[in-house]
Amino acid sequence: MSSEKTNIGNNKVISFEEVAKHKGITEPIFSKGLYHWVMFILSLYTRVRENLKIDFESFVILQVVVSHSLYQLNKSGTKSFNELEEQMISITQKKTNRDTKLTFASIAEVLQLPRETVRRKVLSLTEKNILSFNSLNGIKLGKAYKTIYKEFVTQTTLDLSVLVKKWKKSGALETLIELENK
Fold first, then answer.
1. Within 10 A of 98 (CB to CB), how many other CB atoms are there?
2. C-beta of residue 49 within 8 angstroms of C-beta of residue 55
3. pTM score, two decimals?
4. Where are the alpha helices (DSSP H) in 24-103?
5. What number of other Cβ atoms are within 10 A of residue 60's Cβ?
6. Where are the beta strands (DSSP E) in the chain?
7. CB 51 within 8 A of CB 70
8. If we measure between CA atoms, which residue out of 156, 114, 148, 111 comes closest to residue 131?
9. Which phi-psi region, left, alpha or beta, contains residue 24 (left: φ > 0; alpha: ψ -120 to 50)?
10. Phi first, then psi: what are they for 77, rounded to 5°?
11. pLDDT tens by residue, 22-69
């Protein structure tokens, strides 16, 4: 996974004013949508710190590991919430193929963080059993991720549902869906 996949270049910046003019919208829908987004992010940040008891940088490192696991699991087809829960737990017990193992270096590259920072934070997450690490299998989800999935992911999904409903009510969702790169 390269940083190119996660960056948006300046040539992809979209004028919301142009979209509003094109759609004949006079009410400022962006500020409400942005407010709800910021509140969602603040709530997420607070829950990471209070519920998971980790810093946000460690949380983002965890998300890279989750992303890698999801990528591997989705190769065999998409999963429901419950199927995914079962598969995420079983992934902690499987040996990893050498070509697909996740390393400190690969996480550091994706997040543009120093390798030593990633190593230190992965080892801290390993102590909490959120991640597991060994040189043979690389970095994987740990046994404690089961609780995170069941509780934290469920709450985040509910919070995201609330956000999307607010965006729909304000008209921001429709505008976001209809945005196109020009």
1. 9
2. yes
3. 0.79
4. 29-47, 56-74, 81-91
5. 15
6. 131-134, 138-141
7. no
8. 148
9. left
10. 110, 160
11. 666 555 677 888 999 999 999 999 999 999 999 999 999 999 999 999
